[in-house]
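[09:14] KT: can someone run the structure on this one? pasting the chain below
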Amino acid sequence: MNPSNSFIEQMPKVELHVHLEGATTPTTLLHLAHKNKIALPADTVEGLQEWYQFRDFRHFVEIYLTSSQCIQSPEDIEFIAREFLKEQARQHIVYSEVTYTAYTHWKQKGIPFDEQLDAINRARAWAQANLGVDMQLIIDMLREEPKRDNNMLVAEWAVSGMGKGVVALGLAGEESAGPTERYIEMVRYAHENGLSAIIHAGEIVGAHNIWDAIEMLGTARIGHGVTAIHDAELLAYLAQTQIPLEVCPTSNVALGVARSFEEHPLPRLKQHGLNVTVNSDDPPMFNTTLTREYQKCMAHFGFDLATLEQLVLNAVRATLLPKMERSQMEVAFRARFDSLHTQLGC
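[09:31] RB: done, structure tokens below
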């Protein structure tokens, strides 16, 4: 194998933009469907892999909702979290901040939030002890949900989970479905209680949604943010403030945000001095992994290993971990990079 690809596979990583339910693999989904007697479009892993092949946004939503329906109990939630963390460990992703839509499982199946969180924390404890990896949660509101009380409930859940694995209140879903001002009250509540907010913006909708996420909601990071490339004033602001962008290249290409990898704005965002990180979003649905995202950055953008290392360290510094933990992680990552260079001769 090419030493550079081996380096990318083995280098320690952090992931900031990945959805727990969206990371459910066909194998995991088939197990849950059989267990809970839920009909799927295919009854083999191979058939599900074919169904997973991205066609359009509507198909993406269909897969996402089907995956969610297969999760029927706290035990199922613990199972998908364990399987997710196994895959993160396989890729040497030592820490992840994972978006999780607790509201869907409460609304569909009536699973109380505290039981959902307990299930995920059992998986976290197992992964810490057995795999040496960890994750914390961004509990997200959905733009498609118009009711104030339901969104406030999610904000209250997120605040109640502080210190128990929840690091932020999120806002995700179809970007054009809900106006940003609808969520000001919920984010204010989170901030007043010391909880950060992380907002998906600037993916499908233009740069004005990024401005809204910053000015109305005080987001700690921008989920996606790639349409900033079309707004010179915003580019200058993001370069000055260094608000991190959670860029998901393969997801962007699949959804038509960029027509191809070669036309993806990530290199230009970097050239403008923006604080860019690389992420996988919903990896099985886009036939990718975080490792492959870094490999594609090298293949399509011409990034060298030093540039990839910097992108990894950007992600470390952009986590919501305490400053001391971030610093310790960065030192450990740098030492591992040096060791891999020596070992692989690259």
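[09:33] KT: thanks! The beta strands are 13-15, 93-100, 134-142, 166-172, 196-201, 222-224, 245-247, 276-278.
[09:34] RB: yep, looked fine to me
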